[in-house]
Design goal:
The protein is α+β, with helices and mostly antiparallel strands. Helix content is about 25%, strand content about 10%. The protein is elongated, with a radius of gyration of 16 Å. The two termini are about 20 Å apart.
Length: about 70
């Protein structure tokens, strides 16, 4: 499968920090690099500032295809 340029842009925005924000109930701030140790409170950013993938870039990928 080949991704369109718009899809590649969206894939590059994916991050573990975004996954943590999206899948947690009460987390509102995370470090941008979820694999690095935080050494000061200034390293936390709001989940609102971390880019989300726009899944609309895949809306035409499966038109007419049905999974049974």
């Amino acid at each position: 499968m080949v991704f369109s340029p718009d899809q590649v842009v969206q894939i590059k925005q994916a991050s573990l920090a975004r996954v943590i924000c999206d899948s947690s109930d009460d987390i509102t701030h995370v470090q941008r690099d979820a694999f690095s140790m935080v050494t000061s409170q200034d390293e936390y950013v709001s989940c609102k500032s971390i880019p989300q993938m726009d899944l609309k870039m895949w809306s035409d990928c499966c038109m007419g295809m049905y999974v049974t």
